[in-house]
Amino acid sequence: MDHTENITVTPKPADKEKIRKLWKIAMILGIITAIEFFLAVFMPRGILLYSVFIGLTLVKAFYIISEFMHLKYEVKSLIWSIAIPVIFLIWLIIALMAEGGSVFNINF
Amino acid sequence: MAVSATVTKDTQKNIWDGGVSPLKASYGKLMMWFFLLSDAFTFSGLLITYGFLRYSFPAYEGSLNAFKPSQEYWPVPEKIFDAVPFLHGVHLPLLFVGLMTFILILSSVTMVLAVEAGHRMDKQDATKWMLWTIVGGLTFLGCQAWEWGHFIHGTEEGLALSNGVLFHGANLQLNEYGPPLFASLFFFITGFHGMHVLSGVLLNVIIFYNIVVGTYERRGHYEMIEKVGLYWHFVDLVWVFVFTFYYLI
Question: Where do the domains of chain B lie, and which CATH numbers do they carry?
Fold first, then answer.
């Protein structure tokens, strides 16, 4: 059986530029988390703060999905077949927020 | 040769006629993507339920400094999650969860670096980064275990029950932090995510073992790191949302 023989694979040299880019994205994600943390402590709570939080979360999600999960570099049809079904969630959020409001009105 | 020539000709007409892979991704990777999509729906179901239940309870209206946990209104999370290990009694809002988020992001980075090393067929680098990813995952799980322990055991203040007994901490029926559902959702959402991290760590250990014994080197490619990497990044992604919707807002 030839698959038991010793195979010597010479690894290709690391692409410094690519690795630096990955650490840069990690730094962006870390800084955004730090900003969120400081806003939570020092900014008054309210719609404005919540919108900022959701915005920053979506920025983080975009970086993780497009760069770390590499989706940005896949073919268009794969990107869309992952992204389009997420529309259902927007519907669910709107539906359940409205529902939550009316449950509140009945109870309180 | 003739067959492949025909395929190339057809490709120009319609890539969906067969003979080629239109999505240019392997079966395993595609299935991982669609599994993650379905898993995203599950997590969204939990988080949107959190939003729904929160909106059906009164919000806390008074000043933030005067906040006292009560069954009457939904608690302000930064007033509840303010403990850090070894710093008993110090009010450090959200510092510990912030740290957990950071740990998970770092372990995501080491995972991409392992994938990158796999592309270069660099066994030594892949081993190193995979090990760091496992360390990051285990650290996160340890932090979460502490977080749960603290949440369950509660604080000195506790909750005065109608029969005069002081109740500390939280379970699925009762908690000192707010309405019973607040603790139930905490256990469900962070617990479900924790189970994902745990299974992610187990998968990472299997991959790590296979890298070390040279399975992927013999196979000629390290695509398994990529597939499990997708799952690992997804777990990180979910935590980003849990951090925002459970702890920040």
Answer: 26-248 (1.20.120.80)
